[in-house]
Automatic annotation (TrEMBL):
Coiled-coil annotated spans: none
Region of interest (Disordered), ranges: 356-391, 429-453
Family designation: Belongs to the protein kinase superfamily. CMGC Ser/Thr protein kinase family. MAP kinase subfamily.
Protein name: Protein kinase domain-containing protein
Biased composition (Basic residues): 370-380
Keywords of the record: ATP-binding, Kinase, Nucleotide-binding, Serine/threonine-protein kinase, Transferase
Species: Hevea brasiliensis
InterPro entries the UniProt entry points to: Kinase-like_dom_sf (IPR011009), MAPK (IPR050117), Prot_kinase_dom (IPR000719), Protein_kinase_ATP_BS (IPR017441), Ser/Thr_kinase_AS (IPR008271)
Length: 453
């Protein structure tokens, strides 16, 4: 860490804090994530999900992990620096984003997701705070909850911001996959158009209530598996026919509304993949490079010229992640870690994906990197509680079992929450599983954002 000078803390969460820093030798501005937990072995460090996932991914729309440092038991992640996150960009905005701007942001995120899912990972915690922005480029960040698609369920450590949480997870399903990222993108896309959250629930039950009020209650035809999940925990969906999204998001085009509806489908199987989303008519006017792996395969073989273009793009977007020893100033080609048993500062070399040359698919970005600038405000703190161990019915399910939302939208003697209006004050407390009457929304767009569980 002697090569870096910490300038300013830009974010603080449960697991660590993020600092804007500068490399004393090169003058490069970076973001350094300092973990609060002590790590006493490199084996423990390199097996962290954030390290394991990012070492396998090199893409212009995924934040680059430049270096991992362990010094006196403290672990530091050195990332490329981005000016702000998407939430900071829109939270104080008065004028709506144009559809071209929304299309630009979403298309880039879908490119990153398509690459990530092809590499065998899904994010599990997509939200505006985890999408970092510099000028016209956006990158997916915070892979602390990333999971391998082929890993064996049950998934017992799923935590995410409630407003972007897929309904199968709200109903305590242990069988879910990359389609939870697609649900989150539907909610994020709607928020970019309206500048307010689409499903601002104050608890798990209230979250489902708000989803039903907007997209309509699930049926045997729309989501039979969801009805079975609800039945297993003695939960009854509130009955609602929903509303037309075009009424909630009048600035969105018909194609945009159609894509949001598909992404926010009750049934995960009916949500498009990231690759399919990129082919949606909403993105027809995009002038971005779509890599061959995301296109419909042509019946003829590639020509040598296209192969050369592919090789050039792969070389252009190869971003190795370096874990280095203090005494070494350059990277080595070996993909293996050098065992360093000395005390004090430890680093390791070459955390680049071992099979990147054979498997990585490059994406071409039309935007140029701009000079980094410090963000205007601190990042919203992320509060994450570890999930309980898997068992037949969780404590959350027990609480769901004790309540029933009927057609009148009540639990016990509690009144039905008021219809959604612009703005929301989130009053739910961490761990609160019960539906309580929501406060009347304020007429202004400003709302208090809080991350729970």
């Amino acid at each position: 860490m002697e090569r870096y000078k910490l300038i300013k803390e830009v974010g603080d969460g449960t697991f660590g804090s993020v600092w804007r820093a500068i490399n004393k030798q090169s003058g490069e501005v970076v973001a350094i994530k300092k973990m609060k937990k002590k790590y006493y072995s490199w084996e423990e460090c390199v097996n962290l999900r954030e390290v394991k996932s990012l070492r396998r991914m090199n893409h212009p729309n995924i934040v680059k992990l430049k270096e991992v440092i362990r010094e006196n038991g403290i672990l530091y992640f050195v990332f490329e620096y981005m000016e702000c996150n998407l939430y900071q960009l829109i939270k104080d905005r008065e004028k709506l984003l144009s559809e071209a701007e929304v299309r630009n942001w979403c298309f880039q995120v879908f490119q990153g997701l398509a690459y990530m899912h092809q590499r065998g990972y899904f994010h599990r915690d997509l939200k505006p705070e985890n999408l970092l922005v510099t000028k016209h480029q956006i990158k997916i960040a915070d892979f602390g909850l990333a999971r391998e698609i082929n890993s064996q369920p049950p998934y017992t450590e799923y935590v995410s911001t409630r407003w972007y949480r897929a309904p199968e997870v709200l109903l305590q399903s242990y069988l879910y996959g990359s389609k939870v990222d697609m649900w989150a993108m539907g909610a994020i896309m709607a928020e970019l158009f309206s500048l307010r959250p689409l499903f601002p629930g104050t608890s798990e039950a209230d979250e489902i209530y708000k989803i039903c009020n907007i997209i309509g209650s699930p049926t045997e035809d729309s989501w039979a598996d969801g009805l079975n999940l609800a039945s297993a925990i003695n939960y009854q969906f509130p009955q609602s026919v929903g509303v037309h999204l075009s009424a909630l998001i009048p600035s969105a085009s018909e194609d945009a509304i159609n894509l949001i509806k598909l992404l926010c489908s009750w049934d995960p199987c009916k949500r498009p993949t990231a690759t399919e989303a990129l082919k949606h008519p909403f993105f027809q006017s995009c002038f971005y490079y779509v890599p061959p792996t995301l296109r419909s395969r042509a019946p003829v073989s590639r020509t040598p010229s296209s192969a050369g273009t592919k090789a050039t793009l792969e070389q252009q977007y190869a971003h190795p992640v370096v874990l280095s020893n203090l005494k070494v100033t350059q990277s080595f080609p070996s993909p293996k870690f050098n065992a360093c048993l000395s005390t004090g500062v430890q680093r390791k070399l070459d955390l680049v994906n071992q099979d990147a040359s054979g498997n990585d698919k490059a994406f071409k970005s039309t935007t140029k990197q701009q000079k980094y600038r410090p963000p205007g405000r601190k990042k919203s703190p992320t509060v994450i509680n570890k999930a309980r161990a898997a068992r037949g019915v969780t404590d959350a399910a027990d609480k769901f079992a004790s309540m029933t939302i009927g057609s009148h939208g009540q639990i016990g003697a509690q009144p039905k929450p008021p219809p959604m209006k612009a703005g929301v004050q989130w009053t739910g407390e961490s761990g609160d599983m019960f539906l309580r009457p929501t406060h009347q929304f304020q007429p202004s767009r400003t709302y208090t954002r809080k991350v729970v569980e």
